[in-house]
Amino acid sequence: MLTINIINRSGHPLPSYQTAHAAGMDVHAHLAEPITLGPLQRALIPTGLFMEIPEGYEAQVRPRSGLAYRHGIGLVNSPGTIDADYRGELKVLLVNLSDTPFVVQNGERIAQLVVARHERVGWLPTEELSETQRGAGGYGSTGTK
Looking at the record, which segments are called Disordered (predicted)? Predict the structure, then answer.
């Protein structure tokens, strides 16, 4: 198990898995007062969490499916990436994609956090790429069968 240093200034539980096989951990809002998001409004919601992600890893901030389905609440930059050298507070950029206002309450589960290993790459300039069956086919090119 990977362990990560974390400071919790929120008074809410640390990010946690809700089921035995969950990939994402729920993250809570840390608010002095509720924030109302009108239709198509966005707001940066603090969590009170500060993390020290190990080198070679990132933390990905993702929407919660229940908020998206029931209320149309998503993340503007999804998934958001928390880099290993960032030491500021984790904040979640929520957006209300519905046609009704949504109130974000203190302590509400607002996002999921997934910690993932990543690679750094070095580019090798070339004039040719290997051939594949798909080739340059892009958006929708594989069709449906």
Answer: 126-145
